[in-house]
Amino acid sequence: MSAKTGERGMTIRNLHHAIDPKSLAVIGASSRQGSLGRVVIDNVRGMGFEGEIWPVNPKYSEVAGLRCYARVTDIPGVPDLAVIITPPHTIPGLIRDLGERGTRAAVVITAGLSKENGLRQAMLNAAKPKLFRIIGPNTVGLIVPSAKLNASFAHLQPQAGDIALLSQSGAIATSLIDWAADNNVGFSQIISLGDMADVDAADCLDLLAGDPKTRAIIMYLEAVPNPRKFLSAARAAARLKPVVAIKSGRHAEAAKAAATHTGALSGADRVVDAALRRAGVLRIESLGELFNATETIGRFAPLRRARAAIVTNGGGAGVLAVDRLMDFDCELAELSVETIRALDQVLPANWSRANPVDVIGDASPERYRAATEIVARDPAADILIVMNCPTGLASPLHAARAVASLSQSGTIAGKPVLTCWLGSRTAREGRQALQEAKLASYDTPADVALAASYIANWSRAQESLVRVPPSRAGDETLHDSETVKAIFQRVASEGRRMLNEPEAKAVIAAYGIATPTTLVAASPEETEEAAAELLASSARIVVKLVAKAVSHKSDVGGVVLDIATAAAAREAAETIAARLKAHDPSAAIEGFAVQPMIERRRAWELILGTNRDPVFGPIILFGSGGVSVEVVADTAVALPPLDNVLAGDLIDRTRIGRLLAGFRDQPGAHRPAILSALCALSQMIVDFPAIVSMDINPLLADEDGAIALDARIEIDPEAATVPGPNSDLAIRPYPAGWERDVIVGERAYHIRPIKPSDAGLYPTFFARTAADDIRLRFLAPRKSFPHQMLVRLTQIDYEREMAFIALEREGGDLAGIARLYADPDHETAEYGLLVRTDLQGHGLGWALLAHLRDYAAADGLKCIEGIMLSENSKMLRMCREFGFSIRQHPSDPRLQVASLDLNSDSADG
């Protein structure tokens, strides 16, 4: 059984006409020297485009030696791609005329089509009926060297290569083209995105992910207009090939009017960092790093850890490298006792006996080789940095040859090797010998340390990429969503946005975050009574202000600590009331919160929080807490949903995260308790779209656990009744709610959404599936399924694509797969279905298809379609019985199209 699922994502429909056109119309081509139309037509001709070229301009009968046509309707054929360089008001009509001729893609170089003048929307309206794709407007253009296509006004003809460039800035694109020409770097594609009225960075990432001519992708970004779509595409591309990005605007001002510390601390640029890391993209800071970073990570596979070990003949050079490694938050490997002993046997007595391994300035080639080989074998060394400083005692070239003799495709003992031969004249031959052995070579200690940071940061991003936290995480018995829902709805019914402290603590306690016992007193007299009750079991208590109008109690003297008697508690309440009246006479007091004084002298004060970024939606913040949280500014941010691994990464990206591990005689904090609190916060964000912001500050953490002393929550009252999962999440959680157990015939199966780890199930599945079934599924014979394809099939992000697998309950083997790709408008989706040959004919395909249909309907899709070979009688019969309508494919008589309207009665199965 099979139906075709597109090999490309649906957002790239018709874009193949742009990147591999067989004919081209240049509308606005000109013979006038210095005009834009002249530069573009000269570039088209200069790169040697081999298809038909049709200039269009009523002013000329001939342009660039080619016949020129007055109108689009005069062109003798149908151009695959149009390049448009005409006044803005002409663009919508040209798009309409081209669409009616059969053209499906255009590069609109013209600027001036804005929302304000209505021309942008008019252009899109003209394109929509024909699914006409537009790159631009206001773009430098499109260059595909392998297709000999230069549809741009760039000043140079780039050489062909395997790096793709996406740029939201035309000036940056042409600058990188210029740099690449001087450094012998070639491109597979260069796409200047312009104003991105239609085709955006996400569409291009989808396109490039499946491009066999593209080995790596580099991006220059200024904005992310559709973050969920962008992250979905970036995650898909980064699973298959290195993606490196520069995002400008790193110091954009954060929101000033945030109601919580988290809002003031998150900062737009740090959220971009978190988003790109979660997408598996390596972010760098300068254009000068772009190609070096791409080349570095393109050489190696991601590492589980990235601890660097250094071998050098100059102690000073090694120290410089260590300094820069520390600047980049890289780790140094701690060499084992066995490694030290082995090095003692081959190095002079005065060697450093530590990492960096100083082999001394007179090191012979044999000493270099032996030391490098020993260090590479150390289990703690993940990256090997080998350095050489020129001396009069040994030859840099001979040392390079000794190291190069160990190289196996740029690695030694299977580990990435980065080399740095310092100097110029005497180092040149050594660098050449290293490069000939495919070893990465860098000029300075700072350069080689930066390269190590690329590997480390990319590896961490790749680890984040494959995490798929569920929509319901952890122990669900700790998540009392009904209690939280009731509190939010009560607060909303009172017209409030801010929860008071007891309400906020009740919310986080409902999700398993420990809080102290809190009694709320309406007056100083009741405060005295509450204090007496708590002092029966606690040596000291705390009294805090409860007032809707006060965001931060400490700012108005609303907290009194270390109270030993009930009378003192009453006095504290009276003092707090007087302070508030002096600060703001109009502020109303709701009461006073009385709780035990939690004294954990060896505990750290932490902050956990969430806020809404205007682009990427909800974010999670973690770091050093307490009243000085904004001054200390030791925090990191991440995108929800989190699991324990992602939460651990968030902790480890802070300075206090290192202290929490323990040091000297200070025991470490109870990490599982902190992880549990972060995952609970993440789950609240998933479950309750109403949450606008939250602070849990401080969360006290020590070796015995973690407890939240204070909490603040702001909600959107209008969203208090909106159910989860939260649709504002930039990354969709693993949809655990779509797991099902089914009985088909006499066999039991577990149907669930696919996970990245399922790639290991495919080889056995395909081995037990007949070649003809595979041919029918993929519309062509397939003898093998490369690992890259299995990665692409299993590592999805559930946003535009869904796949369900059926696992045999007994044994857990893969039994069948159903897959769905949604179109850009999220109205129609293409589906695919394959059941293992030995299990066909018993109803498993029907069960998978029904599950897929139910999901599609719940996800808001209006129709699902499958394309299959006309000879696939089993699938066609099942589709008819299921309620699909069948029609012949409009352009291929060998194919049939099966469509199911999800709004009709037939969709009920």
Automatic annotation (TrEMBL):
Coiled-coil zones: none
GO biological process: tricarboxylic acid cycle
UniProt keyword annotations, A-Z: ATP-binding, Ligase, Nucleotide-binding, Plasmid, Tricarboxylic acid cycle
InterPro entries named in the record: Acyl-CoA_Synth/Transferase, Acyl_CoA_acyltransferase, ATP_grasp_subdomain_1, CoA-bd, GNAT_dom, Ligase_CoA_dom, NAD(P)-bd_dom_sf, Succ_CoA_lig_flav_dom
Family matches, as Gene3D superfamilies: 3.40.630.30, ATP-grasp fold, A domain, ATP-grasp fold, B domain, NAD(P)-binding Rossmann-like Domain, Succinyl-CoA synthetase domains
Domain N-acetyltransferase: 749-903
SUPFAM superfamilies: Acyl-CoA N-acyltransferases (Nat), Glutathione synthetase ATP-binding domain-like, NAD(P)-binding Rossmann-fold domains, Succinyl-CoA synthetase domains
Molecular function per GO: acetate-CoA ligase (ADP-forming) activity; acyltransferase activity, transferring groups other than amino-acyl groups; ATP binding
UniProt-recorded name of the protein: Acetyl-CoA synthetase (ADP-forming) alpha and beta chains, putative
Lineage of the species this protein comes from: Bacteria, Pseudomonadati, Pseudomonadota, Alphaproteobacteria, Hyphomicrobiales
